[in-house]
Amino acid sequence: MKNFNSSEQMETLTRTPKAQVWQFATGFANTQVTYTLVKSGIIEQLRDEEKSLEQLVSVGPFNKDVLYRVLRFSSAIGLVTCTDGSYSLTETGRLLLKGVPGSMYGGILLIGTEPWQRSWNNLLHSLNTGEPSFDSTMGAPLFDYLNNHPEYDSPYNDWMTSSTLMSARAIAEAYDFSLYHTLCDIGGGQGVLLKEIMTAYPHLDGILYDQESVVATHVLDEMSGRVEIHSGDFLKQVPAADVLMMKSVLHDWDDAKSLQILAACKQVMTPGTKLLILDMVVADESDHIGLFFDLHMQVLLNSRERTEAEFYTLIEKAGLKIDQIIATRSPLKIIEVSC
């Protein structure tokens, strides 16, 4: 009989089917430990230097024993390391810091909050009805709820802006806008992506198009003279431009509503117009992140992330055609569409 040391025994045990079920079924603990470390400021305390348990306890109203156990768990999932009684952030843990390249700070603050957690706890409602579980759980559709709860609306908008910043440069680098003169960002929020592209292509004139309350806080003042700010409902109409661009718009809507949006785009498109759909494309059944966001969109909005085949079907139903799908240095792909 082969003898195992303790680490070999542990590795063997964690590979058993029962252990694997237990690990993914208790994944909620990963979320809550990560959220707690960020929300409490513990992660921020470790930004510049390692600290002892006593030093960390001294900066807040923390229970020393529970903090020790939370840090021990966070070490097991790869967020911190402990050497000679001093704690420091791993490379992964540093992504939880605010303001660092690739920071996940805003996303973690959002996903750990009550509306997100309670909605996922009610996934069974979506399974049984096909409806978003958010509405029945929180008593209102997502965006109506956020409008009435600034304590969640503010971090939501901050995270949307932050995630756009992370992908904006990758999009500007991946697509050649040099052949065009006007670019309309449909559902463009505060104009973060539009600003990045117009900065990279100084000849471009831009149009920012979104709800009035959203574009009111745009970041395009320094682009005055080159940009127009329009408000309206993209389910009904959109401005005309050489290039129409929609980032993370269609994934908010089911196929029927997405076809309405595409119909509004088609109305202003000419043979030379390009429509750029910037969205995640689910690769296959092993695409864990894509599959998570697909279910996440169902839970929140009764919408979906789409596979390449699903995009081709949707675009064909809209009477348009996909010219190419371009990968970027971000989770998003550029789906180039023409009429």
Describe the structure.
- This protein is α/β, with parallel strands linked by helices and 339 residues long.
- The protein has two domains: 6-102, Arc Repressor Mutant, subunit A; 162-284 and 301-338, 3-Layer(aba) Sandwich (Rossmann fold).
- The protein contains 18 helices and twelve strands.
- The protein has helices spanning 6-14, 17-25, 27-40, 42-45, 53-58, 64-76, 91-94, 105-111, 114-121, 123-129, 133-138, 142-148, 150-174, 192-200, 212-215, 255-268, 288-301, 308-317; strands spanning 51-52, 80-83, 86-89, 182-186, 205-210, 227-231, 243-247, 274-279, 281-282, 306-307, 321-327, 333-338.
- The strands form three sheets. Strands 6-5-4-7-8-12-11 form a seven-stranded mixed β-sheet, with helices on both faces. Strands 1-3-2 form a three-stranded antiparallel β-sheet. A two-stranded parallel ribbon has the order 9-10.
- The protein starts with 5 loop residues before the first helix and ends with a strand.
